[in-house]
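User: Predict the structure for this protein chain, please.
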Amino acid sequence: MLPGLYPTGKSLELDVSYKAISLMSTHGGTVECHCLMQVIRGAEACKPPCGQDAHNVLRQYRAQCSTSSKASVAVSGTDGETPVRRMLGVLQAIINGQQPDMRAVHKLHELIVAGDLSADRNIQDIITQDNDLDSDVGMNLIQLLGGSNDFYGTKRRRNSCTSASSNDSILSGRFKDAFMCGDSPSRASDTMQEEEGSSGEPSHLPNIATAPIPEVEAVLRTADHWHFDAFRLVEASQGYPLSTLGFWLMQQNRVAKEFKLEPSKLAKFLRRVEDGYNDTPYHSKAHAADVLQSMHTLLTLGGLASRMDDELIMLAGYLSAICHDLDHKGVNNDFLIKTSNPLAIQYNDLSPLENHHVSQTFRLLQRDDCGLLRHLSKDKLVRLRKLMIDMVLGTDMKQHCTIISRFQTVLQVKLHSHQMTTAGATPAAADGQAIKFEDPADRSMLLQMALKCADLGHLAAPWAVHQRWVAGLEEELFRQGDSEKQLHMLVSPLMDRTKGGITKSQVGFFDVVAMPLFRSWCAVLTDARPMLRAVEDNRRKWKTFEQSQSSK
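Assistant: Here is the predicted structure, written as structure tokens:
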């Protein structure tokens, strides 16, 4: 034992219990009640004190251990990430003399008593154990969530090196009109390369500060409902859905007034951002407008803003949704990394797209004509910037499982702690409504979850609208597959237009990605359950569709 490493108190006992539980969580074994008692004693002895409420709860746990009929609990070994292994970080903090998070210690106790030490299975295990999933679908999900395609043990043949024929005008009819109508905006790269001190406006910059025309106003009225059609707003606004909706929401919800956002700078910022979205079939300004509306409903109808009780929440939520895919390249991070794209080089292969989106946002906010936040205090600017960075980086699907797992763990800890400290838990406490998120890290995590839900908000859209979004995403992925063929690369799963695309993977995507996300969210924000029900309804429709296709 190194001198000075531990605080005063039961350092040796805590060290022994920490190492014992660490080994058991990996290799399997038996957790005895006295090990938990050692953890509790070490937590009680650490400095600074834990607080009276925490000590009251610890005494309750001590009594439970003393009266428990179980002398030990069998633990199965696992190679995946488990709640216990995450909690070991908390115990390590105790060993190092840091202030412990007693709620996390309580959760550790709960998991040990219940014997549930492997609740979070490896995502690859979940996918590969689903016998109903097509192998291409499974590999696509594993790749999306950051796993290895080799897990399927399937050797995929390289596609023909001949370049595939690419239709420059894939979108047609209403689908094309929804994305392409109105004046053609400048490309994102052109917009971002303009001189930062420039105050000039694009010649086609409309005055969106004026009252909306009747057609636009009629669509904007639907922004306060769970069901929204961003394609209608594209058409009504003549190709400016994001700036129109963004300006209207910030005015209607008094965000602009509360933060003294100058109308002219707000309008210019929104149009600069809108021009920064490329003409891609999916990650476009229409998608940004759709995500913004979903974030708006989660903040208002879903009760997030009132739950957080923080003046910056609305502004951070709106700005992050508006800019979350700014200058998206129409390909995923894996493609940028494999092709050594400058963005991958710049950000060291770490979420290059998401880092680029948020970086471009703050570059715009530094411009003289877009500096709508310059009057905010330094403290507010620092907090707002951190919230926005955390939220946008959280949209990288490689972070999905980590964020969901952390959110579920924190939720369970808070529920358990609340029930232990409250005499007679109310129904609201049981469904998460009574749980408070006062810690800055917890608030940031909650906002990350909100933007993730909003980013997939079209899963809750009316069936016809949702299908159009899926068609756009499928076309964008096919275009990446075309590029991979032209570069003699292995075509990514479900991106070969000569084979089935993501339309054959929707049930798997709902089951592995969407349902855990929305169910976890609605366990805390129960007012958002209409969104969950809509997601479940679309999932059933995709299941019916897949069954009809398989029967042919």
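The first strand starts at residue 29 and ends at 32.
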